[in-house]
């Protein structure tokens, strides 16, 4: 008798009950598509979905060199927030957060969005001033956040230690409607919706060349053959720089590994997301009871998807000071994701020097929370040639000096 793994059983049940066979069994590519999206992660799938839903562009292929959602979409810590300082950042992240609110209904697929609240601890006087400034900026932007006292922090997170040996908790920036979602489900939900519109999701299909005629993209060469297209969207996160060079232009991005880990499951003890930038750690509790812990990026450029011991030590040491009760927990698993960092720690959603080719990258350590807003803006840019949400994030800003400095909001924490 043949035995199947739990994953295989779940996968077959998903195929049977949802009818999204096309998204699992990669079809052979057609000769020509109106649009080809490279990258079947959250941002790429969201772009394809909103191209179909908002603009009726459904002759689309999403091609992926690995498997659906196998990159950063499946390797993050699922935090969703929009409490950014700069106006363009707040606008696109708040758009994303609002789309997360109704995503399960829109996709008819439960993405397990949980608006449990996100808390960013202030543990120095400098952070108090910074977060109060952000709270005032958010009020002007229409993003609902507030500054809360240490007593309110303790009320929301009873397991926290307010009087740490190095950095006491002096208050926090609190976004009540921030939270988490199931990262895999976001990719699966978008994939099923795209498949239902007749789009092709082609896995194990690596781009090996970009074909150009007269400064205009006309197609891509892949390991499954050549594909002609009218427009090309490049949405490949940490590999954006490499694919841009294949297309004939360069990007101001660098790739780094960002690390995370989860503990063994325990009983519910924390129902909000807590981020502590000063001691450099952030934590939430998953539905299965695991403590989901985020670390930092490596100090050198690399493409590894493994973790490193020194980041475990650094991150766990900081969190044990803030949450003493976790000191005896065992680590269950650890991993890394390849993030693409720009100089101003803000994304790039832009036309490129190659006509008909568009780029979406540079989300750094904060890509998951932006998925629906990013896809909305990228689809609008590709369909119409202009997007108010994406305008400030064009490549031109680097030669014009229009930086969107989010190094504090995005450079350390998620």
From TrEMBL:
Keywords: Cytoplasm, FAD, Flavoprotein, FMN, Nucleotide-binding, Oxidoreductase. Its cofactor is FAD; FMN. The keyword Flavoprotein applies. Its EC number is 1.5.3.24. InterPro entries: FAD-dep_OxRdtase (IPR006076), FAD/NAD-bd_sf (IPR036188), Rhodanese-like_dom (IPR001763), SoxB (IPR006278). GO terms for cellular component: cytoplasm. GO terms for molecular function: nucleotide binding; sarcosine oxidase activity. Residues 35-79 form the Rhodanese domain. It catalyses: sarcosine + (6S)-5,6,7,8-tetrahydrofolate + O2 = (6R)-5,10-methylene-5,6,7,8-tetrahydrofolate + glycine + H2O2; sarcosine + O2 + H2O = formaldehyde + glycine + H2O2. It is found in: Cytoplasm. Belongs to the SoxB family. This is Sarcosine oxidase subunit beta.
